[in-house]
Design a protein that fits this description.
single chain; mainly alpha; 58% helix
């Protein structure tokens, strides 16, 4: 299950690696022009959302302390914290989506046909766990990846693609 979504997510993670590699460590906590998000928030948000997606299909949230900082309803006002490094956050994102892909692939149709229960998606066409996982693996990740790319470009790097 989720073969197409997994392929798209793997491609997005290849792009993610190239984009994040160029984001300067000293700009991690700086809000970017345009969208206003800092790289630290974008990386933390992708990581915690990937872990939340795992919970829908039998996994768990590993970084529970990040829910308040990066989860739904969080702000971009992330205090400088020496543990929130680009390396640690990048690893968390890669690990979260690797595990999410594994769990999504192994799940069955009945498990993902149920309502997702994500309040921020209430009233949208995204109704089931299957819809939500498709969103997390593709459009949600891609949207925030574009914002990370914007942070990279704001640091003076030329386009990659």
């Amino acid at each position: 299950m989720f073969e197409s979504e997994i392929a798209v997510n793997e491609n997005l993670l290849n792009q993610f690696a190239k984009i994040v590699a160029d984001i300067p460590d000293d700009s991690l906590f700086e809000s970017s022009v345009g969208h206003g998000h800092s790289p630290v928030w974008l990386l933390g948000h992708l990581a915690i959302v990937g872990e939340a997606g795992q919970r829908m299909v039998g996994g768990r949230i590993i970084h529970t302390e990040w829910l308040r900082l990066f989860g739904p309803g969080s702000t971009d006002n992330i205090p400088v914290d020496a543990t929130l490094t680009k390396s640690a956050l990048t690893t968390a994102v890669v690990d979260a989506y690797r595990r999410l892909r594994e769990l999504a692939f192994a799940t069955d149709e009945a498990n993902v046909a149920r309502p997702h229960g994500v309040s921020v998606l209430a009233g949208t066409p995204i109704v089931t766990v299957k819809h939500c996982l498709t969103h997390l693996l593709t459009s949600h990740f891609g949207f925030h990846l574009a914002q990370l790319s914007s942070c990279r470009r704001a640091a003076g790097f030329a386009h990659l693609f």
